[in-house]
Amino acid sequence: MRPARRGRERAGCEEVVRDGETGVLTKGDPMALGDAVIGLLLDAERRAVMSLRARQTAERLFDVRLMIERTLAVYAAATARVTHPVP
Fold it and tell me: Strand, coil or helix: what is 73?
């Protein structure tokens, strides 16, 4: 994941939410957010498709086993660089 940037055009987690596919990103404007919510409330099929895609994306990106493997890899890399024992 990339770090958050200042001055982004749209509010939301653009690295995870794909606008129109797994959710709706707005430009930080309350009216745009309201329009997006109303649009989803009025379109059950679109809501269901986005929900399914979002769940599949979350399961793929945030799988516990994958997160554990990545965390252990970070720890292994960090400890491999230690040149002296920690007291």
Answer: helix
28's CB contacts (< 8 A; 6+ apart) are 10, 11
What is the pTM (predicted TM-score) of this model? 0.63
For 11-71, what is the HEC assignment?
ECCCCCCCECCCECCECCCHHHHHHHHHHHHCCHHHHHHHHHHHHHHHHHHCCHHHHHHHH
Residues 50/23, Cβ–Cβ less than 8 Å? yes
| pLDDT value, residue 5 | 46
pLDDT digits (tens, 9 = 90+) for 51-83: 999 999 999 888 999 999 999 999 999 988 776
Task: Give yes or no for residue 43 having a pLDDT over 70.
Answer: yes
> What DSSP state is assigned to residue 82?
-
Using the structure block, give the residue that is written with the tokens 């957010």: 33
